[in-house]
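Reminder: ligand-aware prediction takes two inputs, not one.
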Amino acid sequence: MMRQYELVDRVRRYNPQTDEVLLNRAYVYAMKAHGAQVRASGDPFFSHPLEVAAILTEYRLDDATIVAAMLHDTIEDTDSTREEIDRVFGPEIGGLVDGLTKLKRLDLVSKRAVQAENFRKLLLAIAADVRVLLVKLADRLHNMRTLHHMAAQKRARIAEETLDIYAPLAGRMGMQRLRDELEDLAFRHLMPDAYATIEERLNDIGRKNDLRISAIEKELAEALSAAGIKAEVRGRQKQPYSVWRKMERKSISFEQLSDIFGFRIIVDSDEACYRAIGIVHMRWPAVPGRFKDYISTPKPNDYRSIHTTVVGPGRQRVELQVRTNAMHDIASNGIAAHVLYKEGHVRANEGLNNESKAFQWLRRTIESLADGSSPEEFLEHTKLELFLDQVFCFTPHGRLIALPRGATAIDFAYAVHTDVGNTAAGAKINGLPAPLLTELRNGDEVEIACSEGQVPPSVWETLVLTGKARSAIRRATRDAMRAQYAGLGRQIVTRAFERAGKPFAEEKIKSALPRFARLSVEDVLAAVGRGEMFSGDVLKAVHPEIADDRKVVMPRLGNEAGWFRMKSNPPVVFRVPGISDEADLKLNPIEGFHFGLPVVFAPNGGAVPGDRIVAILARNESVTVYPIQSQELTLFDDKPELWFDARWDIGEDRGPVFASKLLITAINEPGTLGAIATVIGENGANIANVVIELLSPDFRSLTVDIEVSDLKHLSTIVSQLRARPVVSKVERVNG
Ligand code: MN
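Here is what comes back for the chain with manganese (II) ion:
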């Protein structure tokens, strides 16, 4: 096991300014926290975080990352808390350890076979700081290195997960060296036989070609040196796993040297790269189509090199990469090469607004995949975009809940359980009380407070994003609505009984239930309230002796001039025609009418501005205005459909108005229209048009075009309409 001073030594070698006190404090803290815990290998548990920290020193990472590595398992596996780590090590390190804790909880999720691709993206989304991912990858690398201590079944799962998720993630982050090792270890565990075969053949070829390889190295080095280029030439053998993958994709011949070996020429400047490639090409012919200049056009992840294949010594095809040391650093260490200590501190929790250079780099990598020419990359990117539409949150027990971006704590509550959603009364997000409508962010821990007997407000239905929440809310509000409809139905049926001179009693309906094909009295009443059953039918079912003398009173129809129009067939429609133009609106002294109709004042009425007034539609294509107290109005008592509320439009400054349409379902009885018009008029809105349809003997629908000043104005009217006993439903009609 690595000792404390060894770790400090390693860090000091690349970072002379390291905070040794901090490193030592982390060492002691983690050792104490993990106490007597042991790993499957029998080693003290603490050896693990220490080794993870050691791996990260190879990438020359900053103190915060090294310390976070030492602490990475404390919150989840020991008594430590985020608060304590914040207190002892500060919020930056606290944030990193917290991120690692969240990722660790994801490991629990992945056991339930989450799709690898999504999981990889999930990692990216949750890690607010790229250093969290670096520690996570080092954590996985150490676990893979010590995998042989685990039970066989567990081993296979971890190795598969490594191949599916962590190795591609390392590749995505440009960390080729780490990726190679992860793949090698995983491949070795998953397919020991295939691994052994490939390794043996690689060694065999290596032995056979040993002389040839060093000859090529020598020839290249001499040619470059003769041209005055300082260069280091390295032959390299491909990894068993990449050979295996290549063999899977297309059967390659093991004998082809160029597929197994490559050479790397490292020089000290960009310019030297081009000079070196010139020397090589002048000496050995280039294989057409294999020359790629990633220096002038870097890969999206900043990979830079010149690639070529030449027909080299002994007519052997030889793959070559030419690059500088700096390019090599990025090619092997990828994003980690950008998180070097010298870059200064990257603060955790800065999120995407003020992101670190390294994170920008990662994002750029992901974004530029959109321009990638390979369809595979493009597909990746498409999926990634889908993924970016999601947020991942946790229950206090660490269960992962995936939601669409923009989802609120209400969606979260329903995702946990319908009952939790229906009774949700409040939320805590990351330990702090927050409104249920709070939009959730990646990694939020959400706790829902429930209260029995709660009914979800129906407005939630329009606010939630998830289908599950929406349908549950609809169901819950439907149950609540049903109770309301039953109340409305009771009112309607009671009146029907009264009109027929029969006392209303629930027992009577109960005894007639078989005739209704309904299960309960409430069902019957709700059906009437909803307009699915008529009060007359209820009456007849209970009192079959009553003759059906019900008449549908047709509204008085207008003349040919088109005052009222009658649609074919029932329902009967009568319509107050056309909205006038702007000029009429201005000339008209009475609000409520924009039809361009002549306005007549009732001769005996004497209405003066300031009087409450009402307008009566008359057959002679005019409206007559009466003060509300006028005796003459009694003449129209039985024709409520002719009544319109009106008010003076003198000396009032009014802002612009906007057309809106309401669909109102109301009980069909005298005065309904008047009541509705009154509500609208009292609120200062214009009625521009009304279409009335008789839905059934009990109900009629009114499509009312009104002009309101704003939404608040409209909502006030809607809620006041809903409060009227005669109104059973008000909906906005859009478009
Ligand atoms: Mn660990």
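The first strand starts at residue 231 and ends at 237. Residues 95 and 348 are 6 Å apart (CA to CA). We will return to this case in the review session.
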